[in-house]
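We both want to read discrete structure tokens more fluently, so let's practise on a single case. Would you supply a protein for us yourself, any chain you care to pick? Would you write everything just below, so we can both look at the same thing?
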Amino acid sequence: MTGSLPNGARSAKVDAVEPRPIAAGLSTLVLAAILAGFNRTSSFAGLLAAYGAAWVVVSVASSKRWPRPALTPRMRVPVTLLVLAVPLATLVGQRRALVEGESLVGLGTYLEDRLALEALPALHPALVSADQPQTFFVRADGARDVSVRLGPAIAALHAAPLGHGVFRVEYDPRRHGAPRHDGPMDAHLRVDGADHARTTHGVVPLAHPRVLRARSDRTEFCATSEETDTLVRVGLDGRSSESHVDDGPSDCAYTPSGLVVGHRHTRSVRFVDSAADDASISFASGVHRLAVDPRGARLAVALEEGRVAFVDLPTRRVTHSIDLGGLPDWLVFDGTGDGLVVARRTPAALVRVDVARGAVAGVRSLAAPAVTMHATARGTAVVVAVTDWSEAPRSQLGNHFIQDQLLALDAQTFAPLRHVLTGQRSPRQDAAGSTDLGVSPSALDEAQDGAWWVTFAGSDELVRFDPERGTRLAWPLARLGLAAPSGVAALADGSVAVSSASGAQIALLVEGRPRAVVRLAPDDRSLLRDASDALARRFGERAFHEGTRAGIACQSCHLHGTTDGIAHNIGGRRAEATLDVRGLRGTSPYLRDGSYPRLGDLHEVAEDLYRGYLEPAGDRRATLEAWLGSLPLRAAPRRESGAVRRGLDVFVASGCAECHRPPAFTNLGRHPLRSVFPRLEAPPGASLDTPSLRGVGARGRWFFDGRASQLEEVVREPQDDRHGRTSALAEQDVHDLVTFLESL
């Protein structure tokens, strides 16, 4: 016979052995926090281990009937908080390490981008710019008829089917209408009669006067703004005139009879004469640069397809052209007018062209492409600004190795005549080896006495170099509102014109003081009041060009917002090819390894690797993101439609679309490097972001390390069919696949 206890006594005995579930859970959480805090846990695995250990301790304590401290209800809360104070403070301090270690930074941005691309029908890019033609892609599986309306002021656009649910849309703001304001904008996709709403972002760029071109008598100069399709002419008295020209004016030049303007998007040059009607010449690709020979008889036209065309000015007819195998970025004639020096961007080189024969007369490879170039008055030498100088291209072993310098070279032989390292220190610097002057030379011109006028976008300076005496006289420009100066022209009366693309203004300076200022857009104060988005982009563009304490700017490697075509040893890890910064919006994460979840996080490269900026500013992270997120890809080149469709068939059949998924041609994923490229040596844990293939045909260097110089090599390189099942492709399949990739 068993005895029995009163109900109250039994309850007390049970409570002494088994704590109530809520009390046991709280005890476990408190102990887990203590263990995690004192171990400085910075991972979910560590937190789980701490909780498991705490659960075991609490369970054992309960079963062993270990004595518990006798605390009154009033004492329990303050004592518990006191015990938890130190470990909780430690855990709070570790929150950033936890978030970064578990790849939770920017998770919201990543999920937003991912959902936008996965919600079918999907549209890419979600950015509509008012300044240039763009190509959009739509993914609508199984659809037959698709049209897109990008905003209330834009006409409905037909989407051309390519197959596999992929559609291509060509948009031209001049013909179809443009966004009227900055900010979110509804887009409507009509798919087989059903309407689908999507959110895009409209951008209306401000004027950007970049390169300045002086007339031969130096009494007038011109500049163009691609963003606003504007040509501006300015005289010695500071009086200016503006006129609208064709789409995407990329350069201007003076001829004996007037002005000629080159256009990137209408692929033409237009003669703007005072005594005759305008006339134009069309080309197969966009016009990038112009140069007129000293005799005024011939015009050289640099084309984006990698050719230079020559125009006889009296007859205005194209006489011949020559293929240079890469973008001819800068053009200057020598003193005779029979020789043309071309700075080719990728592969980087100086090329001398015998104009009469229409043939290449000499090539000198460069380690880095010319940032800008100018011919001396006599035409016997060219002055080139570069970030590195050697006999041949090479991978940079230093972390983002940059050495800003000016070179005077013989125009005939390219033999070095003078060499000037521009980086300088000031007393403001805080560490040996740092530079904060002479950062990122952006434009060159020659004074009447042979001195070099140079603007520095990274340190906001106008500098007068005397190459004979080796002297340097500098004027700060930021206080004049000329941040990130982009152009310079020496004038006949001794004054100097300087342009600021980001600031949308041109100033005529005498002894460093402004004599006249030409504004092509509102100033900062007006934008703060009326257009805060435009002001954020302006500040972000300045930050992109601004030099850090280490003398390096984003512009140093991402030349003119694109790429220098060099493989840099980024962060001291491995050589990686510089990426183009256009078209990045909505494709997080960023960098080759996907280590930056948001565009603004790229600001940390400057802060962490190059010790930040000298000058205090507002939220550079936010403004940099605003500017980078406003840069559209240029309209994709047209290719033969049959080859494009066949290439898409090969693309899908080879498994490329599994990672490079339409419409952005990326799944926003990350992959272990060795899983994609098993034949390459790679450090443990190295990973790669799946890059978007939009604009892949224009990159100049391919693969993450830039080891391929032709897009075809990407398809043909054997990687055990891990990087697409392409090893057994026929020649025609390879050709069609490359054609499709170039059309993106």
About this structure: Residues 605 and 612 are 9 Å apart (CA to CA). Residues 1-19 have pLDDT under 50 and may be disordered.
